[in-house]
Amino acid sequence: MSNVFCGVDFHKRTCTIFTCDKEGKQIGATKRVPTDQLAHHLRNIKSAVVGIEGSGGVNHTVKNLRAEGIDVRILNASKSRAIGHGGKKTDSKDAETIANLLRSNFAPEVILRSQRTRDMSMLITARQ
Length: 128
Fold this sequence. Notes:
33% of the residues lie in helices and 25% in strands. By secondary structure, it is α/β, with parallel strands linked by helices. It has a 6-stranded mixed beta sheet with strand order 3-2-1-4-5-6.
């Protein structure tokens, strides 16, 4: 099990990163980075498990992060009511919640489907 956990609140242009240790203590400040620089920031965090909430556009980013050797998990937001609950919803709170779900091993994951599988799914949907 990892000693460092990163929660990423993913958006098209920017991402918010929250990092904590295995006890839940925050490491460094919460960062807001451009999405195209996400790999650069995560590459510098040694032996971290990274969680990203599954949403549109995340597949390409996860594929690139994994190619960099980063351990990334896609979280199923519909199975995790903790994300966005407990007061005002903010990117920082969402990133913290994702990191804590990873840390506590309660993160419901989504399988990253291959590009061919996604293409076939779109074709079937279009035909229907």
